[in-house]
Amino acid sequence: MSDAPIEKPRSFLRNLVPTLAFMLVCGVVGPIFLVMGLVVDEPDTGWLLPTGIAITALDVVIAVLVARGRTRMQQRMHRLRVRGRRARARVLSFEQTNVRINDQPVLVLRLRIEGADITPFEVQSRTVVSDVHIPLLHAGELPVLIDPETEEWEIDWASARPVAPVVTATDERPAAERLAELDELLRKDLVSRDEYDDARARILGTL
Asked: What confidence tier does 188 reach under pLDDT thresholds 50, 70, 90?
């Protein structure tokens, strides 16, 4: 495990406050109707107060559920980082779901987790994977942290080793496209300068 201090998970309240603020901003019509229902006393405005209460209450319920889920996830990750063991996960498959959360894709991952004193087991999970981490899935193996007692796990992206793209004779894409992909990987620090230079030379060598 790293010697860097492990950040404690946020409390439910610390997760709730910004989430609730965001929900109220997005659903600001609820509070507006609520205030108007309290201060406006005119015919045909009786619907404002109950509608405002209903929309505002829905915003609060959604914020509570999101904050509770986020708090549980942070507590789980903290437990794994404190007492989890390092293991390896073989990537059996991964598929796009066409769903994005916070502009990051949700993938269905099938992994086989194995390591010292750990009975190998397979898992399938819908997981948010950053765009910059997707190339790491092609490596076929990822580092994970696992609690052997509960089999809770998480991918240790910080320890995952970047993999340079493989240039093969069967890659029929235009050289310009392959070079652009390589440039993007370098820009995102997914390949080292040496790996970049080697892969670039091999692409140019196919011309």
From this structure: low
Q: Compute the CA torsion angle 131, 176, 167, 193 (nearest 10 deg).
A: -70
Whether the pLDDT of residue 4 is over 90: the answer is: no
pLDDT at 1 over 50: no
What mean pLDDT is predicted for residues 122-147? Answer: 86
Q: Which residues contact 46 (CB under 8 A, 6 or more apart)?
A: none
* Final residue in a domain of this structure, among 82, 106, 138: 82
d(C-alpha 76, C-alpha 122), whole Å = 20
- Measured in degrees and rounded to the nearest 5, phi and psi for residue 172 equal -95, 5
Contact at 8 Å (CB) between 63 and 116? no
Say which residue the tokens 């829905």 belong to. 58
Reported as a single tens digit per residue, the pLDDT across 58-107 is: 999 999 999 998 898 888 888 888 888 889 999 999 998 988 877 788 99
- For 190, which DSSP code? S
184 and 123 within one domain: no
Which residues, 6+ apart, have CB-to-CB distance to 32 below 8 Å? 52
CA dist 107 and 99 (Å) reads 8
Number of domains in the chain: 3
Rounded Cα gap, residues 162 and 136, in angstroms: 6
